[in-house]
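Sharing a chain and its predicted structure for anyone who wants a worked example. Both blocks are below, sequence first, tokens second.
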Amino acid sequence: MDPVRNPYAPGAGQRPPELAGRDGELASFDVLIERVTNGRPERSIVLTGLRGVGKTVLLNALRSAAVRAGWGTGKLEARPGQALRRPLSAALHLAIRELGATNDEARQHVLGVLKSFAQKELPGAKLRDRWQPGIDAPLVAGRADSGDIEIDLVELLADVAGLAADSGRGVAIFIDEMQDLEPEDVSALCAACHELSQHALPLVVVGAGLPHLPAVLSASKSYSERLFRYSRIDRLDREAADRALRSPARDEGGDFTEDALTAMYEVTAGYPYFIQAYGKAVWDVAPHSPIEAGDVRVAAPEAEAELAVGFFGSRYERATPAEREYLRGMAAASASEPDSVLTSAVAEALSRKPQSLSPARDALLKKGLIYSAERGRIAFTVPHFGRYLRAHGDDVDSG
């Protein structure tokens, strides 16, 4: 089959040709937009799930929906060790520009508040580290510039939301990798969302992160459990997975047999990233349409090699030797418990005392390679990572 017409798109955050299985989340967000625009209260949203289930793709789709509704939008990606002030300022600057408020005086005032917020430096900041945000408005002193991120963020978002209310629209801020926010920034964001919800102001935060993100938010503010609407993004069911494969193929004059679709679901388990990776490989090796189960078997090694390098291997390379040992111990322990394993089981698999493994476990948690499913249990953030390590064994280190 013609590789030039291959419709599948495996990539980080790259939208697939058919966004299958997310109709419920998209419809719910459309309702949220209408309710907020009409002055009705709504909670901000948090999307959670493993790597490769399409959280970033969905986040971008929701942002597109907000743009179509005439809202102001901005997006940022949280990074470990990075303060929220700068990236959020850039995101809000874009949102205000998109909003295009008709009252220029009010708009300039809010931009001035944003500029004050953005330029508020931490104590001891050196001159070369000071940031010029490029906001064409005079500073507004005494608003969102106290240096306390919680106070400043509440004031800033209230002002931005007020500008949106005056224009009859809303603002949505999208935060990817939300679990990597610093604790004080998480607390500030929760406090600001709480203030906005109490006054039914038209600004919502849509965050996406790993499965332990709700625990991160709850540890910051006890009321966060009621503050956000949580949506777990998981692998696709069989019907949605078939649609993700078949619809793009038919658009390009191809198709799958039912046996081929069954074989594809067995190897991908419905994970969106795997669907795209295997779909791309099988399209390239299939001699003709419809694609058959035999084509899937032939393409599987190529797809697995691609995943070994770009999806599994790149993450494994980030780990130190001690951390890799811990990952292999998790893989051994998870052979019978694929979802999550006891930390004591990992220690037993490695014939080590649990206390001696704590530094490696904590480092892997910070790197986002594993997460704490519940007290005393851990799990991989990457689906099928344990299976990959068990299958490749020492090859992942020697290769």
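Comments welcome. The chain has a mean pLDDT of 91.
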